[in-house]
Each structure stands twice: as structure tokens, then as C-alpha cells.
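Researcher: Structure for this, please.
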Amino acid sequence: MVELLQMRNEISDMFNERKMQGRAEMRGMENKIVELNYKITIMLGSEVRSEIEKLRWVTTRRGLAAIGALATVVFICLRMNGSNKKKKEADASSASSTSTSPPAPPPAPTSGHLFEIQQSPASQ
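Model: Predicted structure, C-alpha cell format:
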């Protein structure tokens, strides 16, 4: 009987020891999962940040290129407009220096013209 009680205690101790080992393994596994989750979160966060930073640089470069292209187009348009004015002025000055007759006066308005000044009967 004593041997039976002793075996029972030994078996109970073995079960308790196995439960404790199981709990320790479970805690160790949970700690590994938490650590892995933390590493994944850090890796993904840093990758996302680096991708965002790359996208910022690409957007900045494209914006600067667009502003530069716009400035170039405006500059070219202004230069062309200025050269057209100079050409017209040169043509006008050469035309006036070559012709000796004065320019023709504008034609007189005909009756019924929209902008003809009508005199009141009292002033006639």
C-alpha cells in the first residue's frame, strides 16, 4: 500500500512537472511570437518609410522639372514676342524713311454710320 501511495505521488509529481514544462514552452513560444511580430513591424515600418521617402524625391524631381519646363516655355515666348515687336518697329521705321508722302487720312464716315456724331437742331 505504501508503494502504491508512493507511485501515486510520483505520477502526480510527473504530471505537475509536465504541466509546468508545457506552460514554460507556451510562454517561450508566445515570447518568440511577440518578438517576431515586433521585428516584422519594424521591418515593414522602415520599408514603408523608405518607400515614402523615395516617392517624395521622385515627386520633387518631377515638380522641379515641370517648373523648369514651364519657365523655359515662358522665357521662349517672351523672347519671341520681343523679337516680333522689334521686327515690326524696324519695318515701320524703314517704311516711313523710304516713303516721302504722308500717310493717307482715315476715310470720312458715311451717313448712317453708327458712331457718327449727331448735332442737335439748336446748334445748327
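Researcher: Any notable elements?
Model: The two ends are 154 Å apart (CA to CA). Residues 2-91 form one domain.
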